[in-house]
TrEMBL record:
Belongs to the cation transport ATPase (P-type) (TC 3.A.3) family. Type IB subfamily. The keyword Membrane applies. It is found in: Cell membrane. This is Heavy metal translocating P-type ATPase. It comes from the Bacteria. The chain crosses the membrane at residues 35-55, 62-78, 231-250, 256-278, 558-577. Keywords: ATP-binding, Cell membrane, Membrane, Metal-binding, Nucleotide-binding, Translocase, Transmembrane, Transmembrane helix. Its main location: membrane. Residues 115-214 form the P-type ATPase A domain. Residues 621-750 form the Hemerythrin-like domain. It holds the Pfam family Hydrolase. It is a multi-pass membrane protein.
Amino acid sequence: MTPSGARRVALMTGTAGPLAAGGLCRVLGLTGPANVLWAAATLFALVPAVWWVLAALRQRRLGVDLIAVLALVGSLLVREYLAGALIAVMLATGRSLEDYASRRARRDLRALLERTPREARRYEDGAVRDVPVEDVVRGDRLLVPAGSVVPVDGVVERDAAVLDESALTGEALPVEHDVGAAVRSGTLNAGDPFDLRATATAEESTYAGVVRLAREAQAESAPVVRLADRFAVLFLPLSLAVAGGAWLASGQLVRAVAVLVVATPCPLLLAAPAAIVAGISRTARHGVVVKGGAALETLGHARTLILDKTGTLTTGRPEVTDVATDAEADPAELLRLAAAVDQMSSHALAEAVVRAAHERGLSLPRPHEVREIAGRGAQGRVDGRCVAVGKAVSEAAWMSGVRARAALDGAMTVWVTVDGRTRGVVLLRDTVRPDAPRTLRRLRSSGVRRIVMLTGDRADVAESVATVLGIDQVQAECSPEDKVRAVRAEPDVSAMVGDGINDGPALAAADVGVAMGARGAAASSQAADIVITTDRLGRLADAMDVARRARRIAVQSAGAGMLLSLAAMAGAAIGLIPPAAGALLQEGIDAAVILNALRALREGRGTRVPLDISTDALLRRFGREHAFLRPSLANIRAVADSLSATPEALERLRDVHRFLVQTLLPHERAEETRLYPAVARALGGTEATTTMSRGHAEIERLVRRLGHHLGLAAHDGLRPDQLDDLKACLYGLHAVLTLHFAQEEEAYFSLSSGVYAL
């Protein structure tokens, strides 16, 4: 048990024990021992209460504890020992609740320190030796092995470097650096070993600066004022004024003590923390860990939301978005060959290629003679063919268009070469989370006024994501220092959401930091006040709903309790309520407001759309079908790109039509007849599905048009005068289906409580 935990247990035991023992003595007629025990409980609570008041005064603020101290002292002076013991137990209970609710996890940034490089491999007399990183000086030549962290800032001296820079920039895709390029410490070598010429010492390097910045941001974070103390600013002087007035008017100190007893702010000491604790319990059921009551309170009135891009608004890992080929190759076959080689490859993007092949149901043969070629990729033999994955080894006219498309989309390219000829390319991109648009809409409806995106990624990529999501402000190419400055510049209460090591300083600097902890860096979880343990951004909106409701209930409970206390104070001031009776009356008020506060344990409506079990199951089913169908959409575009009046093109066109008629249209019709009615019931009317139904009609129209063209070509093949309209039909189908899938996933599938694969 921690020292603070031991103190809380001692305080509860030292007050509740004598109160109970004194009650037993009173029942047995032992009045003297009962008073002694109750007085002991009062004194036991008085000592720490005085300390809390002095600590608050040192911070130049007054809190609710001062009223409790005055009530304890007054009960001893007028020998109302039972009242004093009751107040002592209330004070101990409230402090224990509040300490539990507001205790923060230490922001020691342990993960940052553990990741800091401690050794470097330096060339000395032609050999490589391990040396402490502190011994590295400018000009040293270092070897950076595969999978190791770059120890200091420097320039690539030999062999190209492929670096995972997500620790600094948050960008999920690895970055290639040619010889002579500058690289920063803290990045991870995701490729082959390379030589580095140091341009800075460890202390001067980038990663050390990130650690220093996180420590500074943590140290400079302002403490959050307790909700109870904000109420006490008004309640404290009022209570003292009523008590003093009663004493002066009657000349009886006992009336002043009675006023202070019933004014003891137990609704603030108990009800507000109880509601916050209930809110913390509620968020835990949503997979959100809140490290303290202050964090939940702050989240409950945050008005500005600041989000990192990679891993927060996007999935945080590269996904295969398309497979482009020359006119002769089949995209699925090309992906199968590439994934077969990448099974044995350590290339940074190999896992994504293999994962995409498995998602498409492709059977991967075992490759032979696999080897890594420095700076080029992987090569091996698959089904008797020589397959190379990585850089392009030949050039063709079709490749320039693909390169332009990849640049516009911010995609990485993995070229696939078969038997010495580059036949296709796998395009990979970090995609927007399916639940991100709905989550941001929910957050706006819950009270967030402004949404800002901070990212270390390029401006064009950041702007494309912001446009899709309706972000109010974008700051791209941000360093960790830039993020901290942006967070501190926000005038309203702000919540910062991130997942990478580079987000740690900004999370520590924000009013409340939220870490995507399912796949995010441990350092961001250490620096954050709130950690989302599931890989669902929608949990952030759930946590915001709970926080706002818990805070609202806390305010209601405290406000109602204070009004009841004011009425009791009036009765005590005129002599109707003696101190002991006042203490019991205050217990009744406490019980009422605490029961009200515990309403925060129940699920509120919030901004989530409630779903029945059958609708949720339908959403998951059709989400899985989307994951199965989506890869085939790319083939529609590929057929359009290579369309010509040849028998081979006609056969590929027939394959597309069979897929559309036999697989896609049945899926769309099942959505129309089964899914859309269920969604309409959940969303409150058919207007929510009308636009999607119109999309289904357009898809059917284009498929019929494609079938008409195939009917015309049944005997004599495709005519040249058909090609333009056919291309328009195919490109139209690809565009409509891509948009339609995205709309359904955003508007409907994101309603599901489950995670579906895309």
